[in-house]
Design goal:
Layout (H helix, E strand, L loop, with lengths): L1 H6 L1 H43 L7 H25 L1 H23 L11 H28 L9
Length: 155
């Protein structure tokens, strides 16, 4: 069954989608965590430098350094918001896991595939439905992120 399934274009599409979503999830997680680590270190350095400002010989450089760290935090937070790394990470991971679940249920001929007259067609429909759902969520998220934030005052 595994060899026949691997040669099946529908099953190959499923495998390709699992690999794509898993890869994109890992990349988004990596970017999110790296940016957050830099943010945390920068935020921790500001009070640390402030506490030792009088005892450090490079006192004239401390204020610009602390301001630069604050600006760095703001820039990194903007990048996180703009690129939605955390949301993409979790959404892509959820889609990859749903696709894996579909794969194993199909292979086991369980669940909806147990009594299906055309299990391959059902697999294709369910895989495309999962991918379409994720694409719709992504589009909706991107549109929400692109909308200007309301200030609450009439224009």
């Amino acid at each position: 069954m595994a060899d026949a399934a691997a040669a099946d274009p529908i099953f190959q599409r499923l495998e390709d989608q699992i690999a794509w979503y898993s890869s994109k999830s890992r990349a988004a997680q990596k970017y999110f965590k790296r940016i957050k680590i830099v943010e945390i270190i920068a935020a921790a350095m500001i009070p640390f430098l402030g506490a030792f400002s009088k005892s450090i010989k490079f006192e004239p450089y401390l204020t610009p350094t602390m301001c630069g760290l604050g600006a760095l935090i703001t820039i990194l937070e903007g990048i996180l918001h703009l690129n939605q790394y955390q949301q993409n990470w979790t959404t892509y991971r959820a889609t990859a896991e749903a696709l894996k679940h579909e794969k194993f249920v199909y292979i086991a001929k369980a669940g909806p595939y147990a009594g299906a007259s055309e299990p391959r067609a059902l697999l294709a429909e369910r895989v495309e439905s999962l991918v379409s759902q994720e694409n719709s969520q992504w589009t909706s998220t991107q549109q929400q992120a692109a909308k200007p934030q309301s200030t609450g005052t009439p224009g």
